[in-house]
């Protein structure tokens, strides 16, 4: 999860956030017994980043 976050945080997350909206804190927790492939985790993390953007900027077209 850390590697998927590191690779995608700037392009998919930080660059999409407005500069004047204050502070955003979040954490990622994985609970489960199965180990998933990196590509699956990366796809889900990017999807989560897009959902964050929708929540933060609900009136803009994505």
Structure description:
It is built from two helices and no strands. The protein has about 60 residues and is mainly alpha-helical. The protein has a domain of about 30 residues. It is elongated and about 40 Å long. The mean pLDDT is about 80.
Strands, helices and their partners?
Elements (H helix, E strand, L loop, with lengths): L1 H12 L24 H19 L6
Helix pairs in contact: 1-2
Largest sheet: none
Shape: elongated
Number of E-state strands: 0
Distance between the termini: 25 Å
Judged by helices, strands and strand pairing, the structural class is mainly alpha
Given the structure, what is the number of helices?
2
Mean pLDDT: 81
- N-to-C order of helices and strands: HH
Short structural summary:
The protein has 62 residues and is an all-alpha fold. The chain contains two helices and no strands.
Structure characteristics:
62 residues; elongated
